[in-house]
Design goal:
The complex is a heterotrimer of chains A (308), B (275) and C (266). Chain A is mainly alpha-helical. Chain A has 13 helices and no strands. Chain B contains nine helices and ten strands. Chain B has a ten-stranded mixed beta sheet, sandwiched between helices. In chain B, helix 3 packs across helix 4 and helix 3 packs parallel to helix 5. The chains are: A mainly alpha (308), B alpha/beta (275), C mainly alpha (266). At the A-C interface, helix 3, helix 6, helix 7, helix 10 and helix 11 of A face helix 1, helix 4, helix 5, helix 6 and helix 8 of C.
């Protein structure tokens, strides 16, 4: 290949053109950049503004979900398999351990490291992305180096970071930041590059101050993609939080799972896996709720665009 | 396979002559979201016939349900009540002997296929053998004034050329009727004139019946034998205007004739009356 | 664009930055800012990398990583594209299954790793399972939406051209879905590599991840090797990403995004 590494089109940073039945696909940067393979699939996914009755109508779609859970419950009821204990036992243990039990501190520990790391990664990502956009020549010059660091699977850095920083909160937060900063940064850069030049010219013609320009043209213009990046960063941050706990820690959900696994307490391990799954989903859905507020205007505009 | 009955230019078949009409629209009514609070009546009552070889334009104020009407005529959309008959049979799906050209050529031409392969699609559907396909492709491409662009991708061509490809693809399997939805709305003025003349020439060459929807009154008068004027929604037929202009038509001569001016003025009054 | 922005000057600037980073690394080590017991100097790392490159153990580790990644990717992606296509073609199936897949997509893949370790131990199967499982959900979703994302104008055109059945699928549906699937594959390739390394680090399966871990545990003397392995992992990542981007450019040369890139490069 004669193509140099294209920092402009990195793999993780250009998250999928996605859509969703329940989730409006606001986080679709490719759509946002106007280079989407299709603009229409979201036509059936913009937020339904129907009454509560109309919303209930869609509930039938959950039948398969319910079926899966029921099947798991029924099929595992008499399970003697070591690896797949009855779901009933798992739920019971879940209650004992995580709701009334001691394991809550592990949950708090994980969430604390995640929150700090993710916040830093988000702020840094937007800031660096904006700087790379503002100073394009510097951006071009440093792009191979940034690209290389970006491509190294962050997990590979973990042992080295443990060697440097030891075991503890700073190490975990560093890992989360190092892994999660990229999608936000690259999406910010892409989003700002994708702003219609006419809008920037308009800002100049209107004699907007740089601050006003950033606030009323640059940030809103790039926001759909910044949010997409933040969403991607979120899932990576959760994963790295767990990985750091799995490899070098004495607390957290990851440590809880690992410890249960080493004691061969499979039912307990399952509770950890389920808590982790629930935490991951809860954080994602929380993010989507925030995104809907932040990008309300964008979803509305898209819906109108698709009707016309 | 050859259905093309050449009609000499300048002698369009008159409505009512020969067999029955190619297209017959009777009491067509189309409502969206029937039964929901958002129910909206787009077309209230539209009836007209199109004779074989005729060129009919449909005009109306913006939002007059022109595109809805065309989608009903093509079989893409089912009318709420009323009927559309194509060559005597009520429409269920898109009939074999009918082609449609859309406004948005950049989306309607498949960008992943070359020009030749785009034109080949209806021929493959019709089961035309490979050798005949090649010949037919170069024939229609030449008919629309495109030479050696077969190996190019549509998006490598100019807008006007892309719409020519779309027309070639629509003509490839020798349909009896061509429906066109604002086909020249996305090209510049000069290209637009060229394409208008092209469609007149192609129509004369292949003896094809054309129904063209447009918001441009001048274009309608210039192209049509008859102009169907729709009212603002819910649409009814305001009037069907016969265009007695001689053929072949000429952008300069025809457009500057007195009759053209009168027709134009009359249609303008009809279209803007309700605003 | 002026002369400063093009051609050799840009390349020179990039090379300059790379040289500066390497020199800076060395300088910090020599000055003692970087503690050599936790962060070896650039020259020591590079020397070790050179030595390792002639060592067959290293190539064995690379092979193990690439094998686990490739097999997992192959299995996960084949399943995802097949199942995603079938689900995308049927509205009822799509509406029913999408909540499950959307939920499972939000579950951190890593949650399944301990289970895989218990079931398979530190084996290739464990690695392959994790990678396949991890790439399946996002790619399946991509495929489903891709198959359903036929542009309405394209759909109308297909109808007026009377395209039906299998011919419609190959002429219209698949090409329309291709950009979505390609994006999904590109992401899957990167995610797959990350998961492979994690499986090796946490699960102890052989490969670059395990090599990194063992060299760290071997004490400060072996640290240059750790950094050499990390650099090598980065190189693997670059190769994998470049290969997929190139493949995408080839297959989707007709798509707008690729056309824009081509225009930019010109």
């Amino acid at each position: 290949m004669t193509t140099p590494p294209r920092f402009e089109a990195p793999s993780l940073a250009r998250p999928e053109p996605t859509g969703s039945a329940d989730v409006p696909s606001t986080s679709d940067p490719v759509v946002a950049a106007g280079t989407t393979p299709s603009q229409q699939f979201t036509a059936r996914s913009p937020r339904r503004r129907g009454g509560p009755l109309q919303r209930l109508k869609g509930l039938w779609r959950l039948w398969f979900f319910a079926l899966v859970l029921v099947l798991w419950w029924v099929l595992s009821a008499d399970s003697t398999s070591t690896f797949f204990p009855p779901l009933q036992n798992i739920v019971q243990r879940l209650w004992e351990t995580w709701v009334v039990g001691e394991a809550r501190s592990d949950l708090y520990s994980s969430l604390r490291h995640f929150a700090i790391g993710y916040t830093i990664a988000g702020v840094l990502g937007v800031a660096i992305g904006a700087l790379l956009w503002k100073f394009q020549r510097v951006g071009h010059a440093v792009s191979p180096v940034l690209y290389f660091v970006y491509v190294i699977p962050t997990a590979a850095l973990l042992p080295a970071i443990v060697a440097i920083m030891g075991i503890g909160s700073p190490m975990k937060i560093t890992i989360v930041v190092l892994a999660a900063v990229w999608p936000t940064m690259l999406n910010t850069l892409d989003g700002m590059r994708g702003i219609d030049p006419i809008k920037l010219d308009t800002a100049k013609v209107l004699h907007m101050s740089p601050l006003t320009t950033v606030r009323s043209v640059v940030l809103p213009g790039a926001m759909p993609q910044i949010m997409a990046g933040l969403r991607h960063s979120l899932s990576i941050a959760v994963i790295m939080m767990v990985v750091s706990e799995l490899i070098a820690s004495t607390e957290g959900i990851g440590f809880f799972i690992l410890e249960a696994q080493q004691r061969f307490a499979i039912t307990t391990m399952w509770t950890g896996i389920i808590v982790l799954a629930l935490v991951g989903s809860a954080l994602t859905f929380l993010f989507i709720a925030v995104e809907r507020v932040v990008l309300g205007w964008y979803i509305g505009a898209r819906a109108v665009e698709q009707k016309g | 396979m050859s259905h093309a009955v050449p009609t000499p230019a300048g002698t369009p078949a008159q409505p009512g002559t020969g067999e029955g009409p190619v297209l017959s629209v009777s009491a067509l009514r189309k409502a969206y979201n029937v039964g929901k609070p958002s129910e909206r009546l787009a077309i209230s009552d539209v009836s007209f016939d199109v004779a074989k070889g005729e060129f009919v334009c449909v005009v109306g104020p913006s939002g007059a349900g022109k595109t809805t009407l065309l989608r009903c005529l093509s079989g893409l959309l089912h009318p709420t009540t009323g009927e559309v008959r194509f060559e005597g049979t009520p429409l269920q799906a898109v009939p074999d002997r009918l082609s449609v050209v859309f406004q948005d050529y950049s989306r309607s031409l498949f960008p992943w296929l070359t020009v030749s392969k785009n034109v080949a699609v209806p021929l493959k559907v019709a089961g035309v053998a490979k050798e005949q396909r090649e010949a037919r492709i170069s024939e229609v491409l030449h008919a629309v004034g495109l030479g050696d662009v077969g190996k190019s991708y549509p998006w490598q061509l100019s807008g006007g050329m892309q719409q020519r490809v779309a027309i070639a693809r629509a003509l490839a399997h020798q349909p009896d009727m061509l429906l066109m939805d604002e086909p020249f709305a996305s090209v510049d003025a000069q290209t637009r004139f060229d394409l208008e003349d092209l469609i007149l020439q192609v129509r004369a060459q292949f003896g094809i019946t054309v129904v063209l929807v447009t918001h441009d009154i001048d274009e309608a008068v210039y192209l049509a034998d008859r102009v169907v004027v729709l009212s603002s929604p819910p649409s009814v037929v305001e009037e069907i205007v016969t265009v007695p202009l001689a053929r072949p038509r000429d952008q300069l001569v025809t457009r500057s004739s007195e009759t053209f001016g009168q027709l134009r003025r009359h249609l303008m009054e009809l279209v803007t009356a309700h605003h | 664009m002026n002369a400063v922005d093009t051609g050799w000057f840009r390349t020179l600037a990039r090379l300059g930055v790379i040289a500066a980073v390497l020199a800076g690394w060395q300088l910090l080590s020599v000055a003692g800012v970087l503690d050599s017991s936790s962060f070896p100097s650039m020259t020591a790392t590079m020397a070790e990398l050179g030595r390792q490159l002639t060592d067959s153990d290293l190539w064995l580790a690379v092979w193990e990583t690439v094998r686990g990644w490739g097999l997992g990717l192959l299995i996960g992606c084949s399943l995802a594209i097949t199942i995603g296509t079938l689900l995308g073609l049927n509205r009822f199936a799509y509406l029913s299954v999408i909540p499950v897949i959307e939920f499972l997509k939000t579950v951190p893949v890593i949650a399944i790793l301990p289970l895989a370790i218990v079931v398979w131990g530190a084996t290739l199967e464990m690695k392959v399972f994790l990678v396949a499982f991890g790439v399946f959900w996002p790619l399946a979703i991509q495929t489903i939406y891709g198959v359903r994302a036929v542009d309405p104008v394209v759909r109308d055109t297909a109808a007026v051209l009377r395209l039906r059945g299998f011919r419609k699928f190959t002429t219209v549906t698949l090409p329309s879905a291709a950009p979505f699937i390609a994006t999904g594959l590109r992401v899957a390739a990167a995610v797959g590599l990350i998961l492979t390394i994690i499986a090796e680090l946490v699960g102890g399966a052989r490969g670059l991840g395990l090599s990194i871990l063992t060299s760290v545990n071997a004490g400060p003397d072996r640290l240059p090797a750790t950094y050499a392995f990390i650099l090598l992992t980065g190189v693997t990542g670059v190769l994998v990403t470049t290969a997929f981007v190139a493949l995408e450019q080839r297959l989707l040369h007709w798509h707008e995004s690729q056309r824009n890139l081509a225009a930019k490069a010109a």
